[in-house]
What we know:
By secondary structure, this protein is of the alpha/beta class.
Amino acid sequence: MAVNSAIEWTEATWNPVTGCTKVSNGCRNCYAERMTRRLKAMGQPNYLSGFKVKTHKNVLALPLRWKKSRRVFVNSMSDLFHEKVPVKFILEVFQIMSMTPQHSFQVLTKRSENLRKLNQVISWPDNVWMGVTVESSDYLFRIEDLRNTSAKIKFISFEPLLGRIRKVDLQGIDWVIVGGESGPRARPMSSSWVEEIRDQCVKAKTPFFFKQWGGFNKKKTGRILNGRTWDEMPASAKK
Length: 239
């Protein structure tokens, strides 16, 4: 449904779609899949089918009821551009986002090919931040797919960061997030990988947000990078 979020770079989550399938190495230890098992065991109605992809029309209008502006992560428990989500439903989600300009909606996908294909049929409102996940250099093509969309704000999430990225083309990119994997089987992240991306962002004057070091106990490892936190946001970010 929709809840206040503990995710550092957002304020709330909105899940008109739940469930997903794995498409790349970053999906191996999916937190949404783990959480879905817990929610199903608790009897939460939208998760009774487990991690199968489901759309929830009853959730669509929820942002219309929110009076106070929020920064909203869309489909934290799924991928809006999953091939099993009907195009009509995706457009309905975008219509709701367009109708609620007081909120900022953060949409994140690993399915950049589907994003690219649908770009021409999407009406991109100013309050939608469109991002792609790039967990290693094998998936840099997702950035190019994102760059070729008409989204007003474009961002990259290097989370879970699983390897050195080296050179990142930040042209047209408004925001960068970096984070390590968390949970019981979390894979390690090198500080040099993070610093290399951070330095490129500083040079390009691209806002940089360091989310976490991750690991089994992410609270213990924290989110301090070189003696400080990095909480930069896009210049047009709303509060």
